[in-house]
Amino acid sequence: MKDRILSLIESVIYKDLICLQPSSGGSRVELPIVVSTQALRHVLQTLLLFKQARISASKESTIKCRRNFVGSFWEVAIDDCHASVVESILACQMSIEKIRFNGSILNSAQLKGDYSNGLITCCPENLAEFIKLVLTCPTHESIDVFPIESTSQLVPLSKVVSTPSEPSYVTTTMNLRERQVSAILGPNGDTLNSIRFQSKCWIKVFSPGNKPQWKPSKNNLQKIQITGARENIGIAMVEINRICGMAR
């Protein structure tokens, strides 16, 4: 019987499509299983020997093995079969090579495998638990990214002409006492950065040391320059005046 099965396998292994009809159904694998010719021989031998499936000429069969000429491997699509058939297929593949699927990077995360160019490679430690993941893993669309040689290859889908209306920026200057400026700066400049963030203004503090004959004193005046939209400058001024009032 084994010789007859081997002879049958040899008669179909060089075809582009091998259809299998399992003895029972109930389970579906969304992702195509990718196997080598050597692994497929072992899979076919096991399924036929234990009568889990038979080779069929009908394209309505629920297990289809298609040859992929680009990568010299087979893609096994399972529409309906018993879970034990899935276990036999994956166990046969594991005995020869790593388990591989065609899928997305999200599928690889679900199956805890390695993803590369649409191919998911898995090395499960517990096959029974892994099969549960396989049977519940849905397909996800993948985004194909193609490298370009230069930006001249980028063609816009539609030409968009925008007329930006930039706000008019103004600049205002304040002369404050050194102790007030120190309060505005805060520890490590944190208070000043907070004002900048809230008001969305450029705020520059000029050092009093730039002035000639300057002597350290809390009453020395320092210049603060604020640049931004008018409404934003108003926000900055309110916050600065509040801090200055507390630093008197």
TrEMBL record:
Domain K Homology: 168-245
GO molecular function: RNA binding
Entry superkingdom: Eukaryota
InterPro entries, per database record: KH_dom, KH_dom_type_1, KH_dom_type_1_sf
Keywords, alphabetical: RNA-binding
Protein name, per record: K Homology domain-containing protein
Natural source organism: Candida viswanathii
Taxonomic lineage: Eukaryota, Fungi, Dikarya, Ascomycota, Saccharomycotina
